[in-house]
Write a structure and sequence with these properties.
- With 263 residues, the chain is of the alpha/beta class.
- 43% of the residues lie in helices and 14% in strands.
- The chain has an eight-stranded parallel beta barrel, surrounded by five helices.
- Helix 3 links the parallel strand 3 and strand 4.
- Helix 1 packs parallel to helix 2, helix 1 packs across helix 11 and helix 7 packs parallel to helix 9.
- The protein is globular, with a radius of gyration of 17 Å.
- The chain starts with 5 loop residues before the first strand and ends in a 7-residue tail after the last helix.
- Bound molecules: 2-phosphoglycolic acid (PGA).
- 2-phosphoglycolic acid binds next to strand 8.
- The site of 2-phosphoglycolic acid has 13 residues, from strand 8.
Amino acid sequence: MSRKPIIAGNWKMHNNCNQTVELIEGLKNELKSKDMSNLPEVVIAPVFTSLYVAREELDKCGCQKIKLAAQNCYYEPKGAFTGEISLDMLKDFNLTYVIIGHSERRQYFGETDEMINKKAHAILENGMLPIICCGETLEQREQGVTDSHIQNQITKALEGISNEDCAKCIIAYEPIWAIGTGKTCDSNEANRVIKMIRNTVKALKGEMAANSIRILYGGSVKPETIEEQMAQSDIDGALVGGASLKAESFVKIVEGASSKVMA
Ligand code: PGA
């Protein structure tokens, strides 16, 4: 079963409009000489306020091959929800993906599994695809509850989603202790957890969904780590934070994943 690898850059709360244009120009320059047919799917997720210029810049520079994602959304279509952004609004930017359930949103903004499930449904109903994040804290890992915690997160996030829709979703396994710390999770262990997630999807949504769903690893992914990560059987790509903020390192990661494109 061949699943097209994805390298997604989660810019987090970085880059105003000018900086967004600069970084996209940098990506365009770095990618110019590369054979795009050989590269994984490339995704960037700027902040909401930069989505407009990002869309404009990608369209104008002929970089339609870089797909655009939002870092969050609200599930209600409109109304008295001060400060929130609906999927109908995000549709304006021709987004492919919306990241949901990032550990920073769970930890600092109280995003719950129930909210993540509602967001997943709303994203799919609006013709986009969720990148559903999951992962354990260091404490949970030390207590030996990593697998049960993640199974629970995935089960709740996918509740009520059809097998067909599930097959198109993306899951990102991001151990919280590896995010922004420089401590990458051992590749064999990341692959073991990702296989466990795939088995969970199989039990919930059947074999077709489990074989098709793309599951990424995230947490201190760097140009030096990507090849080993992509060599693992079940790692279909990476969600990259810090290293996605520089065109050179992000494109090195993109290139590092290309070995799996033809496989
Ligand atoms: P990091 O972030 O690559 O900086 O560890 C990953 C993420 O939070 O998605």
